[in-house]
Fold each of these.
Amino acid sequence: MYNGGKIIIGLIIFVGLIALPFVFSGKGASAKPEPKLDTPEILKLPETERKCVESKEYMKREHMKLLNEWRDWVVRDGLTIYTSSSGKQYTMSLQNTCMKCHSNKTKFCDECHNYTAVKPYCWDCHIKPKEKEL
Amino acid sequence: MLEKAIQGSSRYWVWILFLLSLIGAGVIAYIYQFQNGLGVTGMSRDVSWGLYIGQFTFLVGVAASGVMVVLPYYLHHYKKFARLTILGEFLAIAAVIMCMLFIFVDMGQPLRVLNVLLHPTPNSVMFYDMCVLAGYLILNLIVGWTVLGAERKDVPPPKWVKPVIYLSIAWAPSIHTVTAFLYAGLPGRHFWLSAIMAARFLASAFAGGPALLILLCLIVRKYTKFDPGKEAIQAIGKIVTYCMLINVFFLGLEFFTAFYSGIPGHMHSFIYLYAGLHGHSQLVPVMWISSILAVIAIFLLIFPQFRKNEGLLAVACASTFLSLWIDKGFGLVIGGFVPNPMERITEYWPTFPETVISIAVWAVGFLVLTILYKIAVSVKEEVVFDKYGEKQIQG
Amino acid sequence: MDRREFIKIAGISSIFGLGGLTAFGTLKGKLEASQTGPSQNPQALKAKRWALVIDTTKFKTEEDFKRCIDACHKAHNVPHITDNIKHEIKWMWTDTYEHVFPGVEDEYLAEKVKEMPMLVLCNHCDNPACVRVCPTKATFKRKSDGIVMMDMHRCIGCRFCMAACPYGARSFNYKDPRPYMKEEDMNPEFPTRMKGVVEKCTFCYERLAKGLMPACVEASNGALIFGDLEDPNSEVRKILSERHSYRRRPELGTRPSVYYLF
């Protein structure tokens, strides 16, 4: 092979670079995330009312889009009430509605966000709920 | 053609490494700024723009000034500039890149920079500025690269590039006009609220940019076998002379309007810059250095016998460039913020990290310029010699 | 029909088909919107153009100013930056008469008038220069009620609005504001800001939406009057038609919505 040595060294470096993310993520990978829903605020509610603003599946998949829409509606359009598909009305507020029930940011938000390595900057401004030591 | 950039003498590589080390220092300083916020700069609630935006403003002028060699060649077939156009275009590219970097390092939330495209706002001059700057960069890249590539192969440039060149000629004044509009349309900032702002910007740009180009030509001639041409340099010298005179004339107009009308708001910033206001006079020495340099420059430029001496011409160009760099890259921006809308005075001076970052941005510009000029000069060294048959000074 | 024609017809009909589908989709979306989605709080205070009248005669002691400023800054988690005055964040503050109304200088003006403190805040201009220059619409005038809003999520921190505002009403977060707030003093219902964004008074849009008056107005003991400038029967209009009022720098054409009574 013409210049074989160089090509092989180049290939090794290339493969090494490509593999870097796997090497690094290997360390951070933790157990499957299990966001907790057992906050005192949620447990206080009667079993039938333990529902989020939309279905669990929808929230799991679309909560970021929903929050995006909420913030534009509230900040830009001055609309503060959200009527969910079940017809129930909520005040659109991350701090005052979402986190009132989900008062366990570390076990609820961070659990999955850390696992998927997304870093939303919500908490740079929004005040996180005070979490009681369990 | 890029391969030309990686074949150079040891002097070339020392220069590249020097620039890279400046950039490295700037990256460290920028990380520090990114983590701690713009509080690490000298800017404040009252002087909310500083060195970064000043340098941006100045460099838009340098970018626009490329047109001063492109226009005579393409529109008036002034053949002496044939060898220079590429240097003008490549200088414009480096300057626009610096402009963009200065805007970027000035942002409080740099990661949201794409919001400007995501939420385009046609009523904001900033939005237009971004559009025209990006457009100008692309135009110059296309024109410079294509024409140089054709020259290397010793064929005439393709026909389609002509309209692009004409467009870039019209585009150049527009980028600086839009930059002037950033300032000239703000109510309550008397110092900037002047109809002559865009004209003043163009005059100073067409003096400062070509002055830099002359210095670059002299350097290129000294260190390479490529000679941009004595007559061409003299012709740019004339451009610098006229534009510098027009620039000083325009500044005089501003002074007249402010002081003959006697309206306090219009006078305050000038007094602050040149004499100090209520005991605040941090910028006075700097502004006087700028003025003295301007006088030296004009004195040397205005007499043909001085201007024709290339040593003196170099001094004149360096003075012009520095004078305008202070006046526009610093005084103009800070002066607009002092006094503040409540007529209180907060002074500004750049901090160490701010200075290191600014130097690094300049280093990036010079790195781009060096690489582009290296390519251009290598091509020219091969080609120009036969085509023009003029004697080259051996480096 | 040859192959070419068939493809043409098939193409055209599919375009119509798709068009029909989307039309149906939007219609469906509109129908659903009436039941789900966002709406205004029925208790919200509404106006065509909110305005604030500052009765300077009722501000007698330092305490009168402090009450309003503290109410505002506490409600909105405005940090109290004292280590570097250049990085100060202010939504509402005081300055002296000669600085609030520059250009009125007169060497014979009574010293106590010159030095008279005045409340200052964002003027919520009807023709706001800051909104005109913002490259991302992060600051914008609400069509519904004329409030000049800040969308801190969108602000890129270019500070063009600060250069444009002729009232010095805008503050930039030169550093993270959190360390300048005590946790126990924070309003848990309102966010703070992050470093690198511009902020200013928002006429308490979050309180208006709940049917509450702005925090400063509530704390002012009647020295601040808030109401609809476009409603001829509103309290602000009545006062403006009876008493002598000024706006800051009216010659600039920004049409401020904050009035000063003397």
Amino acid sequence: MKFTEEHEWLRVEGDEITVGITTHAAEQLGDVVFVELPSEGTVVSKDDEVVVIESVKAASDILAPIDGEIIEVNSALTDSPAMVNDDPQGEAWFFKMKASDPSQMDEFMDEAAYLKFIG
Amino acid sequence: MSDLHQTPLYDLHLELGGKMVPFAGYSMPVQYPMGVMKEHLHTRAHAGLFDVSHMGQVMLTGASWDAVATAFETLVPMDVLGLGDGRQRYGLFTNDAGGIEDDLMFARRGDALFVVVNAACKGADIARMKSALEPDVTVTPITDRALIALQGPAAEAALAALDPAAADMRFMDFRTLNLDGIEAWVSRSGYTGEDGFEISVPDADAEALARRLLAIDGVEPIGLGARDSLRLEAGLCLYGNDIDAQTNPVEASLTWAIQKVRRAGGDRAGGYPGSEVVQAAFENGVTQKRVGLAPQGRAPMREGTQLYDAEEGGRLVGAVTSGSFGPTVGGPVAMGYVSDEYAGVDTALWGDVRGKRLPVHVAKLPFVAANFKR
């Protein structure tokens, strides 16, 4: 698994990348009450706002970690946003994407580096 | 952070794992490890303990109760003179334009008036009272007492465990209790829509009292995050968001707080700042009104969300002033101001959320029925 400075995790399986937010990010957000997912088939550029997450406290965005196409979204989150707090690095993935340029993955951290990053 | 004030419970908040944030010049716990959602639900089901020591406590004294009450009536459109000893009331400081300078609670304590005001406004409120009321009435800011709110259906049993007299109090009663040897000024009120108490105690006793209450089964510490969602579900205004110097009490749907005796035709009508503006608003109506707003989807509509009368095009008819997720409601809740003709319950409007118009209906307040011991 790879990690971004935006507190996303990315799991790579072939040319498919599954994206979610880290346990640390979920703790910081607090109780998630609303998730808005992109449409499947959306073509995105790195740093596009693709998901809106609202906690009791505030709204925040998930950015596309790399260029590519959204090929699947986890629509279970729409009905059960609390999954993001219950299992952020497992069941509560947000979307899968197909990378346009897999070399963009090279800049991301491994778990040890991410844990160091969040201190 | 170093210039933030700390309440007498600061160390206890840290020990309890409180996440401290700056609020009105104080470092206050926004939540504890339980989290906003569970803290909110816990308060409605059991009891929550809130540190509200940042709020301003002020004592007004004078030659007699009549002198103090009559003087205070020149600042608020409420019936103060008619307040019985040991009773409390909700009030508003108005300005010359009829706008609201702050909202407050005031209680009669013998011949004195005990006033609790918002933290962010307390400096201005004290200056206003001193300038308007002294020297006939002495305005004494109380800077050596903490304020603890105990709210929820289990609050009565918890406080009665320390002084059984707590159970005899009714909603808006105000009494001095002896809580395990601590002299406490207690009102049966709060700002969550639940039954409960607000407890003023000397700074030096605050931590001991908080620990004593937290040791009682069912009492948990609750942060400002849940305090906000609780008051929003209860339809209560947050000063600075839902009411401010530009909104008058009629627009703010707070006419219930202005007793008949202070309205046109009453024995002591007018006589407070901006009374002619407020009176005109009563008689002629207002162009906008504070209403409850129930977003029809799952997306919360936050403060500032613009409201339209059509899904496309149409006119801008208002805006959200407080909006969040209501844990007890189980969905988004909000309040805001809309043009008078759209203020009827169930009126269909659309809120602009991130560029999309989402349906929202005008809703009856409160969202969660009050649970007071009347």
